[in-house]
């Protein structure tokens, strides 16, 4: 009986299990569980894909924006380098400055096309009343022919292009007047008014058949002539094509990108430039906004992904491969793993490429840093971390390493410490700083006066301060000596005349006008022949010039004729001035009227002869 009961129970259990296996409820439960699991895993896989795609896109956008910004940041260093060259060589002839301008910028070996730079120039400010004389003097001293164009109004000053790289466009642009076009003139007036770096509104620098967005960035050049006032020399201008710069930064990317640039000074919504204008208002699922800073101005970049696969991945709610695999968990995990590995590998390759480009940009910055004619020091937390060779020489060191880890305050004279603290506070608030004169100290304790410019930069992922120094001790001494020389010339009783190597008069003093009757307006630009009385033979003047050219000096009497026709005897000292190549560049002539002395001597001699008879 018990055995029968056990058999009945076992049969009922087996029947129940069989019914369960055959019941549609189990199939529904399995199907529901499988569908839920498939949709869940597919949804999670799609979410991961979206995140990876977004990370790739964000990394690409971040790296691309950084590359463009670093290129733009180099404009300021190039312009300040150009300004330093002009200020340090302002007394040289234009031809010599132009030679040094090309020699310096060619030595940098900068790829201007990669930077989008159309031209880097110095434009000279020429008042309207000095334009004709400046042009004539330029063409007299320089082998290049200067003609200011378009023709300016008679009462309007000019900003004429004098020095320009690359050299291939210098001849075509020499003499171009920035004041001739409205957008350029507005930017010029703003930089003259503020004394700061200014970015023009969009304008055209390239041929009209090229779809290009161009700008001019301007840096004023002022030379301090005394302790109170300064003189506006002109503007260092860098013309660049933002479209060329953007396209050069996008050409090596494996993922196609669309970049729209918005200049809010022109429009708040309408792009000033579009790498793919044919797409119109088409929106992309992957799109980010970034800001480029150019001086005090900012430009907005709208960057969109044009890869259809990436956009589809970003908008997809479910991973199709995972969903179609159903309950095949192994295949699903394999597909996801492969996708992750491939995506990760591409991201790493892109990261390495961007890191290599960043390192290349860093090396180029180091090259500019080392070769800059200005003394540059970078300090972090008030301690020197970086310095170039010019800074080492300026502070009396044999190598830049001697300045490393020194407190920056050790290089500042106590009398300038309060000024440094005020400028540091202003800079930390993000406010721009104008160059200022400070008293600094060399490592041997010797003080000297310098012009100092400071700006915030990023150094090894830390906020740092870059300081540019220019020793102006000699400049201030030269200004003092120039003032003293001017006083001596103005109040000297001896007449003075300075000519160039060809004998054309360049300078006279008031005593010259009193002696000869000729004013500066009547004499400058002419030759000493205007004083010729006809009393001396050509042999006399031949011997005079032979003596000057051979020995550099001639002394003697010359009978000259003043402007009113009066003959007088002139005691004359003529000195030849030579340059470092021993070539005569000028003649300095000192003159004094000795007519009465010479006549008195003649009378005394005649009296003695009469007594002897």
Automatic annotation (TrEMBL):
Its main location: membrane. SUPFAM superfamilies: PYP-like sensor domain (PAS domain). Pfam families: CHASE, PAS_9. Residues 481-527 form the PAS domain. The keyword Membrane applies. The chain crosses the membrane at residues 20-41, 320-343. It comes from the Bacteria. It is found in: Membrane. Keywords: Membrane, Transmembrane, Transmembrane helix. Residues 151-254 form the CHASE domain. PANTHER family: BIOFILM ARCHITECTURE MAINTENANCE PROTEIN MBAA (PTHR44757:SF2), DIGUANYLATE CYCLASE DGCP (PTHR44757). This is PAS domain S-box-containing protein. It comes from Marinobacterium maritimum.
């Amino acid at each position: 009986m018990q055995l029968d009961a056990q058999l009945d129970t076992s049969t009922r259990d087996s029947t129940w299990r069989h019914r369960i296996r055959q019941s549609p409820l189990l199939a529904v439960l399995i199907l529901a569980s499988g569908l839920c699991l498939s949709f869940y895993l597919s949804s999670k896989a799609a979410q991961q894909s979206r995140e990876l795609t977004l990370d790739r896109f964000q990394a690409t956008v971040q790296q691309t924006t950084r590359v463009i910004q670093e290129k733009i940041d180099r404009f300021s260093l190039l312009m300040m380098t150009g300004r330093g060259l002009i200020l340090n060589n302002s007394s040289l002839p234009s031809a010599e400055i132009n030679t040094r301008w090309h020699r310096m910028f060619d030595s940098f070996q900068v790829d201007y096309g990669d930077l989008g730079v159309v031209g880097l120039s110095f434009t000279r400010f020429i008042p309207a009343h000095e334009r004709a004389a400046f042009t004539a003097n330029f063409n007299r001293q320089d082998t290049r022919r200067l003609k200011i164009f378009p023709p300016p109004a008679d009462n309007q000053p000019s900003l004429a292009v004098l020095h320009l790289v690359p050299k291939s466009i210098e001849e075509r642009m020499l003499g171009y007047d920035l004041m001739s076009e409205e957008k350029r003139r507005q930017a010029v007036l703003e930089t003259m008014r503020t004394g700061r770096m200014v970015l023009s509104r969009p304008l055209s620098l390239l041929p009209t058949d090229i779809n290009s967005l161009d700008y001019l960035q301007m840096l004023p050049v002022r030379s301090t002539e005394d302790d109170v006032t300064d003189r506006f020399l002109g503007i260092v201008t860098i013309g660049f094509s933002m479209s060329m710069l953007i396209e050069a930064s996008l050409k090596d990317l494996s993922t196609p990108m669309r970049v729209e640039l918005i200049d809010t000074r022109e429009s708040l919504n309408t792009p000033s430039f579009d790498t793919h204008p044919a797409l119109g208002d088409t929106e992309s699922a992957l799109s980010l906004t970034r800001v480029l800073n150019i001086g005090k101005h900012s430009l907005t970049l709208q960057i969109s992904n044009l890869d259809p696969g990436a956009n589809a991945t970003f908008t997809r709610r479910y991973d199709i491969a995972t969903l179609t695999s159903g309950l095949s968990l192994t295949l699903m995990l394999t597909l996801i793993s492969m996708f992750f590995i491939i995506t990760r590998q591409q991201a790493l390759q892109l990261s390495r490429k961007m890191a290599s480009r960043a390192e290349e940009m860093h090396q180029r910055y180091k090259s500019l840093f080392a070769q800059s004619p200005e003394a540059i020091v970078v300090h972090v937390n008030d301690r020197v971390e970086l310095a170039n060779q010019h800074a080492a020489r300026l502070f009396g060191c044999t190598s830049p390493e001697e300045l490393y880890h020194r407190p920056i305050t050790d290089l500042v004279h106590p009398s300038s410490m309060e000024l440094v603290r005020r400028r540091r506070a202003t800079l930390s608030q993000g406010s721009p700083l104008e160059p200022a004169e400070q008293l600094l100290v060399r490592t041997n304790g010797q003080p000297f006066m310098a012009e100092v410019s400071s700006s915030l930069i990023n150094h090894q992922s830390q906020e740092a301060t870059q300081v540019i120094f220019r020793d102006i001790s000699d400049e201030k001494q030269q200004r003092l000596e120039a003032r003293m020389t001017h006083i001596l010339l103005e109040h000297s009783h001896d007449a003075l005349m300075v000519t160039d190597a060809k004998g054309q008069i360049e300078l006279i003093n008031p005593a010259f006008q009193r002696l000869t009757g000729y004013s500066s307006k009547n004499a400058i630009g002419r030759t000493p022949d205007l004083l010729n009385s006809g009393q001396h033979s050509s042999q006399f003047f031949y011997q005079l010039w032979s003596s000057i050219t051979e020995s550099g000096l001639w002394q003697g009497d010359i009978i000259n004729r003043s402007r009113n026709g009066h003959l007088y005897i002139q005691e004359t000292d003529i000195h030849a001035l030579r340059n470092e190549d021993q070539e005569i560049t000028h003649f300095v002539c000192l003159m004094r009227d000795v007519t009465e002395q010479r006549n008195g001597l003649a009378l005394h001699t005649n009296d003695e002869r009469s007594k002897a008879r």
